[in-house]
């Protein structure tokens, strides 16, 4: 667990270690089957997998990139950048988001397991069944890592979480836990998921009222709560930017007074949350058909 957080070279060596990832997944599957999701070894295994999934899309070997994404649409050579997936133009990213992953292997091995739907379902199962905060946080964090990029893999994982594995109810429960790091990671995962336009209506229906309910009445006093508040605002921004229906849902859930109060705090310490709230307010105002409702 310590070695898996030692940086990119350490992660690379551990991902390449024959049988290591398979053994970790095997152990967790056994713990879940035996109804023992709270033991310390399971926590360690999940924390290792969480660390090994960090920056996975960027750090995957080129051979994996070619094999996994061979079905993606042809991209002209001048749009390509060195490395695995790199930073590409908006148009290219939009194309990639529409490109499905090839059919999954039924028996993934090694690094292929890290983004496979089997492990995604294991994380969601641990989120639902474990009461151990570190296990919950690591499971949420692994999904956050896997959905963090802009290539086909993060969007495929997001679709699996939301639509194929019905993961939103379990994630929604984590919004209401008392442990601040677990709550922060759950919100960060939702922020990643909400970037996918095809999932926004599902996410808004399932969790938008919950996100509004956990928004503080004013800017919170701690750094972690401040970051969580900023992430909530950016998630709501993603959900409402192109949907007046979702903006109305935010309004009916009582979100506007909270967002206004948070946006008006100009202290440097809390600028991240107030800036995010201001961006959200600006976006909400773009729905001109809601102006009269806002004014009321």
From TrEMBL:
Keywords: Cell adhesion, Cell junction, Repeat. Residues 94-107 have a biased composition (Basic and acidic residues). One of its GO terms (biological process) is cell-cell adhesion. It is found in: Cell junction. SMART domains: ARM (SM00185). Gene3D superfamilies: Leucine-rich Repeat Variant (1.25.10.10). GO terms for cellular component: adherens junction; cytoplasm; intercalated disc; nucleus; plasma membrane. Residues 79-109 are annotated as: Disordered. Its main location: other. Belongs to the beta-catenin family. This is Plakophilin-2. It comes from Buceros rhinoceros silvestris. The lineage of its organism: Eukaryota, Metazoa, Chordata, Craniata, Vertebrata.
């Amino acid at each position: 667990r310590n070695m898996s957080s030692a940086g990119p070279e350490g992660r690379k060596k551990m991902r390449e270690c024959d049988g290591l990832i398979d053994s970790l997944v095997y152990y967790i599957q056994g713990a879940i089957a035996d109804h023992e999701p709270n033991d310390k070894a399971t926590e360690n295994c999940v924390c290792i997998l969480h660390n090994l999934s960090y920056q996975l899309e960027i750090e995957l070997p080129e051979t994996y990139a070619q094999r996994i994404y061979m079905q993606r649409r042809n991209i002209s050579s001048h749009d390509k950048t060195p490395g695995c997936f790199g930073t590409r133009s908006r148009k290219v990213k939009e194309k990639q988001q529409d490109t499905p992953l090839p059919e999954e292997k039924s028996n993934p091995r090694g690094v292929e397991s890290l983004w496979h739907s089997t492990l995604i379902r294991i994380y969601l199962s641990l989120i639902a069944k474990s009461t151990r905060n570190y296990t919950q946080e690591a499971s949420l964090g692994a999904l956050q890592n896997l959905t963090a990029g802009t290539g086909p893999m993060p969007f495929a994982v997001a679709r699996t979480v939301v639509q194929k594995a019905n993961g939103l109810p379990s994630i929604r429960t984590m919004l209401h836990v008392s442990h601040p790091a677990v709550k922060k990671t759950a919100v960060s995962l939702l922020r990643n998921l909400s970037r996918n336009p095809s999932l926004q209506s599902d996410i808004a229906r399932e969790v938008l009222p919950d996100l509004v309910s956990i928004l503080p009445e004013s800017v919170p006093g701690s750094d972690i709560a401040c970051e969580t508040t900023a992430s909530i605002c950016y998630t709501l921004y993603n959900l409402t930017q192109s949907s007046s229906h979702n903006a109305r849902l935010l309004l009916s859930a009582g979100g506007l007074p909270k967002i206004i109060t948070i946006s008006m705090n100009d202290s440097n310490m809390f600028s991240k949350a107030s800036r995010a709230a201001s961006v959200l307010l600006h976006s909400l105002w773009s729905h001109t058909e809601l102006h009269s409702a806002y004014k009321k």
